[in-house]
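If you are new to this repository, start here. Below is one unmodified record pulled from the training split, so you can see the exact layout before writing a loader.
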Amino acid sequence: MEIESIGTVKSKFDEPADPEEMQKEESTIIIKPEYEEGLYRIEDNDYLQVAFQFHLSDSYELKAPRRHGRVRGVFASRSPNRPSSIGTTCVELLERQGRRLKIKGLDAVDGTPILDLKPYAAIMDKPDDDFADKKEDPRAEINHLIRSHDLESLLIKAGELHGHFCPYVSLGVIAGAYALDELGLKSAGMEDVVAIVETNSCFSDGVQYATGCSFGNNALIYRDYGKTAVTVAKRDGTGIRLYVKDNDELLSEYPEAEELFDKVIVNRAGTKEDKKRINQLWNEIAFELIRKPVDELFNIEEVNAELSEYAPIFEDAFCNDCGEKIMGPKAVSKEDKDLCISCADADYLQLDGRGLVEVE
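And here is the target side for that same chain:
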């Protein structure tokens, strides 16, 4: 079978490089003159699917370690060394000038033959997002991302919960996803999978999103140890504990971020530009960390975790002063009345930025 190219790539990269770095750069697809008419109204599209030839590839392995060390079959990877030598990438179309298309997101080197172009259509190219399927298994997409080790996409989704990207939400995603994958678990939020976090920092949000264990479904346990660590365990206690190797060393590679962290976060100072810059740096660091091997970031050990019983269902009580319903065990007996903690003006425990503290 012979396939004729319809154009070539003009790129700053003369040889293969890190795909993520290549996709950050703009490049140009130059279509052959005889195919220019086929570009009519292509500029109406924001994104294109590009099929091209890995023309520098001359061999392949059906099963081998891939970019991050995991062994996969060639058809279960995005390796450029393939039996067909065909690559596909979705790119952003920035501008059309005649038969020249300025694009961003293409991981192909200068001179790469282009085999085909077509518009990206979410309704056809995106996996079916049927509402009924979501109702049946709300974590289906998250479980797929964990199985396929697509931590970058998982981090992007965790950012929806956390509100921004930062190094520690990235670490939480890495730890939670790794533990579920290694234990062969899926979380349905019914306490069959339990996560024990030892900090209430950004790390915990990454763990909650990746594992599906939260305070609301009683599958998240908080131990106020002040350590960037998590244990993910089955109900029988079989689990994995991950602890960040060295917090200081982790960020020492990013001195500007450390300086801005002290200024903006620790001292609540800095300009608008400082705040914008630290968010940019946190974003960059988060996505750099998500690509690193887990054993570079964490100490990992198999454990037999001590877990409490399933969450009990308490009888309700009513405060004799405000009339609001409360959990029975939380009622305070005072002056022959059952009161809520606030009406009784009693001491209570509060989880906030300081950790678990007693409030008088």
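Two things worth knowing about this chain: The chain has a mean pLDDT of 90. Residues 165 and 283 are 5 Å apart (CA to CA).
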